[in-house]
Amino acid sequence: MSNPVNLVLMAGQSNMVGYKTDEMSLPARWRKPIPKASVWSDGQWQPLQAGGNYQRNGYGPELSFANEFLNNPESPDDDSPLGIVKVARIGSYLSRDWEPDIENGLFDALVSQTRAAMAAGPVVLKGLIWIQGEADSINEKDAKAYKKRFARFVEALCTALGVSSMPVVAAVVDPPADQCPYSEPVRQALTDPDLPLYSSVECQGLPKLEDNLHYSSRGLSILGRRLAVALLRLNNDAPQLVRKWLWDSDNYQCWYAGPTANPDKAVVSLPFALKGDGFKAEGFGLRVFEKRNIATVYVREKTSIWFQSPETLQIAERIRDYLGQETQIVAYGASMGAYGAILMSGILKPTKVLAIAPQYSIDRDVVPFETRWKRAIGRIGNFIYRLEDHIAPDTKFYVFYDPLSLDRKQVELFPHTENWIRVKLPFASHQVLQYLLDSKLLNLLLDGLFEDGPDIARISKEARNLRRTNKIYWLTLAQATVDRRPDLAMYALEKCKELGGPARKIRLLGESIDQNIGIDLSQYAQD
């Protein structure tokens, strides 16, 4: 398959499975493999057909869906094949079986099979087809929570697959009232779950079996066609990015997303440190790069160990291997991610690295003055990499930092050669990225990313001009003037508060000024 696979996920319960369907009841021509359509089964793409080995018995709406998707006038005209990942279980509950936090549940099965399909070759993720809700209509508590749980399920699925959003089409199921007395809240939730790129199709009136709960073969056929039409229309407004899963281990995830499978320019984006599960965070800068249609490879680290793993350089090699030696790379990261971008530069050989508030190390043997990362270094121990052994000699490194912060000592340890450009942003503290975002300077940082940018002189000038509208500036100024100018510190805190600064930090710093300096600050709070 030379073109990327148009990938569709299909998930749900019995009506997605295809309850009591029998392929032998179909005309002979409908029992043959569907041309250009495959289903992911046993770790590979297999022909999609009734009676295939992708499920134990029968078939669901995927057969008519595939025929409609491939032959509808609105179908993609690029001759790309259709690939379906189907995960469904009879009687499954959204509230339990599909819960993202349940280990080895149906959510995990859908994610792992989808990633495996994405690893097999480039895909364009067309979206999710969802047929479920009957089980959650049995009791009132599940039914009332359905809307919130469904939104959470979709959001968690997007994050797990490394996408900002995806088209979702759901069937608005209509189970009988005697078996599912609380179906109305579920139907309302499926009609309007408050999700982007969403559509639903009505199931009322579809032919059913005698149990009045499950759709007949004809009913499933009609439903599959309706779902395909809805998904095709929804994709008219969805980004059509090519995606490829590059790495999937217990510690690291890495994937590519871009306008083509073989870009001539790409960003490699690495995350900053997180307290919780790094796999539950979006790819660093994902929404910005997707909006700009920039080809990007994202790396996620489950636990923030500052890339002190043998996998790190293997991932760098995998990225360069996928992109090819001729692709121009820009590496991008903040704090821990900036460290990682510099560490990987020797293998990635990027033309430039955008390092925002980078740390040379947090290893006490290397930076004995560093005391900010006690928990992290306690977890990591000594670093296994000497950063200077891995820095690409010909890459341009743009280092953005606050020279008034503790980061100054870290930045001084990097080489002082002409290809290291230091950009000073006073009063940005370690939150340089947030400082740039608040000042609306991120676009300037990314303009000319693969050409002559970033425009350092303009960024520095605009940062100075806009600093009084930046909550990070005022908070950092307050912290810097507590001892010498408590009046100025309190004034800065008030400005920070007006701009929506962090309430807890403002309160604690205000209390600290009052207690430590021992003066009445109420006059300044009123100014």
Name the descriptors:
single chain; 527 residues; alpha/beta; Rossmann fold; 3 domains; 15-stranded mixed sheet; 36% helix
Overview of the structural elements:
The protein has 527 residues and is α/β, with parallel strands linked by helices. It folds into 3 domains: 233 residues, Rossmann fold, CATH 3.40.50.1110; 216 residues, 3-Layer(aba) Sandwich (Rossmann fold), CATH 3.40.50; 56 residues, no CATH class. It has a 15-stranded mixed sheet that branches. Helix 7 links the parallel strand 10 and strand 11. Helix 15 packs antiparallel against helix 16. The longest helix has 21 residues. The radius of gyration is 27 Å and the shape is elongated. The N and C termini lie far apart (69 Å). The C terminus is likely disordered.
